[in-house]
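Bench notes, afternoon.
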Amino acid sequence: MRLSLLAIWSLALRELKRFIRQRNRVFGALAQPLIFWALFGVGLSPSFRAGGSASVDYFEYFFPGTVVLILLFTAIFATISIIDDRNAGFLQSVLVAPVSRTSIVGGKILGTTILSVGQAAIVLALAPFAGISLGPLEVAGTLLLMIVIAVGLAGLGFSIAWRMDSTQGFHAIMMSFLMPMWFLSGAFFPSAGLPLWLKTLVTINPLTYGLAAVRHVLYWNKPELVGDVPGLALSVAATVAFAIAMIALSTRIASAHEKPGRAK
């Protein structure tokens, strides 16, 4: 157990150090969502009303989605390094160490979660500029939710990257699968009034429930501004279930082969 915990922390610490040294990752994961928030928020606010309410403009509506987008971007940029580690030979060195595959998965997910939540927390501090008032309860609840969401996204990214040897292929999956997850979560537009087929996609999207839970907590004292989203209990349960499922999937994939294979 002690050796496993040491391996998990060592791998997580390596992720943190590598992130600090690669400043382009900071820009990609943090600056780009903020640019989206500023441009879309200002540009669409004059013509947007969430649920017919004049109390929430697009600048405010888009803010929780921006926080979740940072979690998603950080998970993508962090887990894509698995491919670089394999091609550089580092991953093979870790695999022959006397630690379990679970420790490898845990270290990667822990490091990614710390990075994701740390960056999203910086943006969360900007909530008052979006018109969202934060008290201790809202801050604590949102941070806990961000941790669970980040664990799920890190596990999903790990599961995709583990069997790939091409960063170009990972970016293709990001654009065709991971980004649509975010678009269909209710971050970019509300689900009310959508056609049935599109609303079905929104309903089965696990990120929908993570974002809905964040909205519920951010508007804890103003529930009328939450909008047409799943209930808090359902959203929290689905988000936790998604995180657990992604941890289990990552562990299963990492343990399925003695050596991480290359994409055929």
